[in-house]
Amino acid sequence: MFAIRATGIYSGILGELRGAPPTKWYNLVVGGGCIVRSLGTSKGSGEITKRQLSRALAQGWSRATSYDPAHWSEQNSAWGQCAVSALIVQDLLGGQLLLGKINGIVEHYWNRLADYTELDFTRDQFEHVASLDSPRCADRDYVLSFPDTRRRYRRLRRSVLAHLKGWSSATREPKARTKECAI
Question: Which of 10, 90, 94, 105 has its CA 20 to 30 A from that of 174?
């Protein structure tokens, strides 16, 4: 097996999603034989690219899936989508949910994969990020314990899976969620 190319939480990911060719990822076998579904480029292979996942998330984002629907707009469709998006990324790629504070004020969720690669598909909802403070692991069950979050997650997940239906095998394999979290 190959290791997933490590990129920092904010280094390169947004540029790759906005037009540069996607980095090719590979399946990574982790404890218990589970596969963390990661990148490839072939539609028939059951693998998805970061670009495809980013587009599927963005196509599913709406006022109804936003934590803050009053301030959501088509111009900033990532607004209020971080928790539900991070949960879906964890469904598809495994790993951990991370939680920190943007500029010491606003809570923000993103993902860390099994190889410590961090993915954040909703960072650009913020106009200016001077700091990401106090990162820590978030408990999935706690995040989903809120009825509104659960409703928004289910709605976005249905939409993302519909957009990824050509890569449906990526949604059926067991996912490795990392239990231990070290920051």
Answer: 10
